[in-house]
Amino acid sequence: MEIYDKRAAEFLERAYGTPEIVNQRLRTLAALGLVAGEAVLDAGCGTGLLLELEAAAVGTNGRADGVDLSDDMLATARERCAGLSQVDLRQGSVEALPFADASFDAASCTQTLLYVDDLAAALAELQRVLRPRGRLAVVETDWTGTIVSSHDQALTRRIFDAWGGGVANPNLPRRLKALLEGAGFGAVRAEAVPILNIGGKVGGFSAGMLKNFADAAKRCGAIDEAEAAAWLDGIEVLSARGEYFFSVNRFLFSAIS
Ligand SMILES: C[S@@+](CC[C@H](N)C(=O)[O-])C[C@H]1O[C@@H](n2cnc3c(N)ncnc32)[C@H](O)[C@@H]1O
Question: How far is the CA of 45 from the centre of ligand 1 (A)?
Fold first, then answer.
């Protein structure tokens, strides 16, 4: 069970402020093709990083609504978007969106569907609140495709398999096209958005994530304390030799309602 508290909001701010996730946001924004005056929804808006960009794109004659389950995430989003009159933030679930039918020209949902218990309900809700021919952009990750420089690749695989086990819908990209079409979306397209950190120092998006991956694998019993420490220490050693390498693909799906 994921916890979306104040600590998680602070962690997300750090991890999602890195250049590779900035790139992901800009590509998501481009996929939505927003124009001034439109209404856009960010479902699972977190700390409002994408919503702020969407608000700028639709301008003060438009509307940019954010919904998130977590009050702590929303508190940061409220601070971020305080000066933007076109932004409205509400607590709620993507499984039961607090909006009338056909309220939006476009909607985004990034790194959120993996946590949602009723995926079919969430996709039906996104379809319902979009106007006919509304644009949808979804970003999800397939963690089984992660590559990490490590002395023990079998241990690395166990850690990433365990990471997927901790969420409701792990590795969604493989199923997402069929799920979107099943929910009535058309013109489904997908593109890979790479996260790549290389060089002599553990850095970028993955720097803050490695311990999280090891801790999650420990919590579900996939590895023990000693294995977690050995994995992290081994990565540090390779990193000191200039051999740090981390890569995973995120996948940006776009579709029409
Ligand atoms: C990894 S964060 C991503 C935040 C944001 N979309 C981004 O990409 O910066 C996942 C977010 O999903 C939210 N969340 C989880 N389940 C949700 C649900 N059923 N409905 C709405 N938000 C949800 C969490 O509170 C958290 O803010």
Answer: 6
The helix (run of H) or strand (run of E) holding residue 157 is helix 153-165
- Looking at the structure, give the CATH architecture of the domain made up of residues 6-256: 3-Layer(aba) Sandwich (3.40)
Strand pairing report for 147-148 and 244-256: antiparallel
Question: Of all atoms in ligand 1, which is nearest to the CA of residue 94?
Answer: 20
Tell if the pTM clears 0.90, that is, is over it: yes
pLDDT attached to residue 110: 98
User: Domain segments of the chain: what residues?
Assistant: 6-256
Q: Cβ distance 91 to 114 under 8 Å?
A: no
112 touches ligand 1 (CB under 6 Å): yes
- 48 close to ligand 1 (CB < 6 Angstrom): no
CA distances from 42 to 20, 49, 152, 196, 197 (A): 20, 10, 39, 26, 28
Which of 80, 23, 21, 27 shows the shortest CA–CA distance to 55?
80
Question: Which of 115, 143, 205, when mutated, tests ligand 1's pocket best, judged by the most ligand atoms within 8 Å of its CB?
Answer: 115
For 36-88, the pLDDT digits (tens) are: 999 999 999 999 999 999 999 999 999 999 999 999 999 999 999 999 999 99
Closest atom, ligand 1, to C-alpha of 70: 25
Q: How far apart are CA 64 and CA 225, in angstroms?
A: 45
Which of ligand 1's atoms lies nearest the C-alpha of 42?
Answer: 6
Question: What's the pLDDT tens digit per position in 134-151?
Answer: 999 999 999 888 999 999
In sequence order, the 6+-apart residues with CB closer than 8 A to the CB of 194 are 20, 247, 248, 249, 250
